[in-house]
């Protein structure tokens, strides 16, 4: 058995079962799916911030190029139309996550998913910091409604999802209504006692916590857990490790990004939302509070064509590949690859469990992450990529749009694409030789009568 075969065997023996268990673990699934379901709303907020600051702001990149003020005088005032979308997405991100995690968990436990999700929102505000009074009017802070309250939202979603589902399945706590009662009313009464128990329990916990930490659970957990976790995310090592794991899982046929989504989003969501809000206020990504994020490095520089930066592989195959079959796959994969859809090349080439392409598939993204990190943090020739853009955005345009239209961001994006082509090229050439060798062996066996034609 060769070294590559031994390596592949160890991967299959150890990591495949582990990844499969993680993908089926209900708490991880609930968290992962919550972030996936909330993605359209957070993306809507990001796009509106991008629209306001790139196209409608007098300092915006496209505003200056296209001179929108001459085409439509007073166009800048229309920023007021789009900015409130941020208040309904990034500014209430934690509330969305609490609802969705509890709902997802209740679904997996055969509970009432809607009322469980609503109870999670109720609990989230039960433990929320107290109102403060100003000139006779009570106000509530929005500090923990967004990404800063994310970790508490995850805990609330998980705990309420588990507790409500188990209580609602207890016959002794069920208030049964006559058959003629409308279904919605019967449903509410069925969940009445579980909801009362859950909300009162968390209210009691919050009361005890405030005896020791006046700021409540939000401030306590944020200082103990979320702050260190966010600081940990600011290490380039965190981005590299998560990217490495995502690609490693993909080569085993497991959707890597989905598998690590719960960990990745928990670590980086607060930083990503803080950067977005900074850009909304400052109209620039220079000086963004969190220059190192997964989206700002891995997504912006290393996922052109999809995971593994496979757009570089497709281009390398079109240039260097001699196999008609492989070149046909490359041609068919080019159009979807431009929009970061790469299942065709991952499973059609394939890359999964292909000893030739495992190394560049993992290596190319890591090289590009380091190029992006060098440009942002060391050379400082481009600002941080602080704006989330749709995942189908063609590769080099991601850092361009993500920096608010910085031209050097586009240049670095092109450099990363070229780098990925160069990483894949030697392996494409090696695949040519391997294919040629296999054909020669088959022809020799056929001529010797080993293979019979039918």
Description:
- The protein has a two-stranded antiparallel ribbon.
- The model is unreliable at 450-454 (pLDDT under 50).
- It has helices at 3-24, 26-56, 61-66, 68-71, 79-82, 84-87, 93-108, 113-126, 150-168, 183-190, 192-212, 216-233, 236-250, 256-259, 261-282, 294-302, 310-320, 324-338, 343-348, 358-378, 397-402, 407-447, and strands spanning 132-134, 137-139.
- It is globular, with a radius of gyration of 26 Å.
- It is built from 22 helices and two strands.
- Helix 8 (113-126) crosses helix 9, helix 13 runs antiparallel to helix 20 (358-378) and helix 17 (310-320) packs antiparallel against helix 18.
- By secondary structure, the chain is mostly helical.
Topology:
Layout: H1 3-24, H2 26-56, H3 61-66, H4 68-71, H5 79-82, H6 84-87, H7 93-108, H8 113-126, E1 132-134, E2 137-139, H9 150-168, H10 183-190, H11 192-212, H12 216-233, H13 236-250, H14 256-259, H15 261-282, H16 294-302, H17 310-320, H18 324-338, H19 343-348, H20 358-378, H21 397-402, H22 407-447
Antiparallel strand pairs: 1-2
Helix pairs in contact: 2-7, 2-15, 7-8, 7-9, 8-9, 8-11, 9-11, 12-15, 13-20, 16-20, 17-18, 17-22, 20-22
Quick take:
This protein has 454 residues and is mainly α.
């Amino acid at each position: 058995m060769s070294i590559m075969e031994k390596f592949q065997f160890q991967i299959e023996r150890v990591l495949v079962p582990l990844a499969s268990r993680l993908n089926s673990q209900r708490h991880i699934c609930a968290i992962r799916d919550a972030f996936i379901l909330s993605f359209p709303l957070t993306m809507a907020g990001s796009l509106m911030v991008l629209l306001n600051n790139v196209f409608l702001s007098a300092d915006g990149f496209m505003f200056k190029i296209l001179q929108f003020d001459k085409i439509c005088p007073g166009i800048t005032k229309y920023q007021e139309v789009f900015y409130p979308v941020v208040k309904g997405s990034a500014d209430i991100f934690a509330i969305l996550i609490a609802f969705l995690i509890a709902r997802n968990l209740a679904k997996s436990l055969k509970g009432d998913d809607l009322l469980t999700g609503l109870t999670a929102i109720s609990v989230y505000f039960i433990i929320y910091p107290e109102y403060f009074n100003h000139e006779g009017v009570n106000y509530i802070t929005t500090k923990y409604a967004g990404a800063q309250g994310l970790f508490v939202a995850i805990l609330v979603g998980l705990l309420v999802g588990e507790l409500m589902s188990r209580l609602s399945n207890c016959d002794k706590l069920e208030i049964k209504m006559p058959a003629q009662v409308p279904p919605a009313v019967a449903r509410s009464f069925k969940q009445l006692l579980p909801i009362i128990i859950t909300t009162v329990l968390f209210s009691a916990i919050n009361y005890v916590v405030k005896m020791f930490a006046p700021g409540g659970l939000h401030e306590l957990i944020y200082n103990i857990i979320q702050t260190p976790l966010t600081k940990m995310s600011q290490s380039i090592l965190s981005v590299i490790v998560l990217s490495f794991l995502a690609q490693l899982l993909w080569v085993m046929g497991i959707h890597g990004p989905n598998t690590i989504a719960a960990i990745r989003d928990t670590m980086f969501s607060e930083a990503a939302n803080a950067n977005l809000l900074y850009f909304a206020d400052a109209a620039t990504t220079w000086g963004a509070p969190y220059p190192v994020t997964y989206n700002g490095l891995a997504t912006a520089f290393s996922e052109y064509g999809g995971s593994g930066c496979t757009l570089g592989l497709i281009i390398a195959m079109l240039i260097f590949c001699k196999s008609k079959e492989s070149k046909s796959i490359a041609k068919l994969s080019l159009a979807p690859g431009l929009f970061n859809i790469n299942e065709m090349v991952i499973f059609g080439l394939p890359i999964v469990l292909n000893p030739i392409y495992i190394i560049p598939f993992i290596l190319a993204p890591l090289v590009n992450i380091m190029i992006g990190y060098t440009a942002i943090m060391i050379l400082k020739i481009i600002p941080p990529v602080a704006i989330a853009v749709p995942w189908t955005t063609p590769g080099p345009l991601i850092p361009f749009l993500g920096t608010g239209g910085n031209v050097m961001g586009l240049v670095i994006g092109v450099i990363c694409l070229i780098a990925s082509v160069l990483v894949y090229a030697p392996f494409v050439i090696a695949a040519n030789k391997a294919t040629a060798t296999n054909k020669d062996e088959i022809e020799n066996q056929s001529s010797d009568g080993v293979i019979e034609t039918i």
